Amino acid sequence: MRASFADGSGVDLIVMAPDSISVKTEGRAGKQWSVVETEGSGTTEIITLIAPFESYRLAATRDADSRSVRMGDWRVDRSPAGITVRHEDGRMLRVE
């Protein structure tokens, strides 16, 4: 999900959640909204990354498999085992 402003700046909201979560976006002409839904009942944990950007060219990009997101020098990978955040210099954070 993305919110942007006339000057090209904005923020990406990247939902890193289990496959049972779906994000549906509706609307048009800059008046879109998104609804995050889960299947079944019970507790579901969702991690949301908030990534501000100064211009569209610096915004987060999602790989074709939609399990990986690149944000500047960082790459976020989602797998059944958890979420891994890696920096180009080798730093890493893992959330299971």
How do the strands and helices of this protein lay out in sequence?
Layout (H helix, E strand, L loop, with lengths): L1 E3 L5 E7 L4 E6 L6 E6 L8 E7 L7 E2 L5 E4 L2 E6 L2 E6 L4 E4 L1
Antiparallel strand pairs: 1-2, 2-5, 3-4, 6-7, 7-8, 8-9, 9-10
Structure description:
The chain is mostly beta strands. It has one domain (2-95). It has no helices and ten strands. The chain has strands at residues 2-4, 10-16, 21-26, 33-38, 47-53, 61-62, 68-71, 74-79, 82-87, 92-95. The strands form three sheets. A five-stranded antiparallel sheet has the order 6-7-8-9-10, with no helix packed on it. Strand 6 and strand 7 form a beta hairpin. The two termini are 23 Å apart. The mean pLDDT is 76.
Q: What's the gist of this structure?
A:
It contains no helices and ten strands. The protein is mainly β and 96 residues long.
Keyword list:
three-stranded antiparallel beta sheet; mainly beta; 96 residues
Query: How does the overall form come out from the CA principal axes?
Result: flat
* Low-confidence segments: none
Number of strands: 10
Number of discrete helical segments: 0
Radius of gyration: 14 Å
As a percent range, the share of strand residues is: over 45%
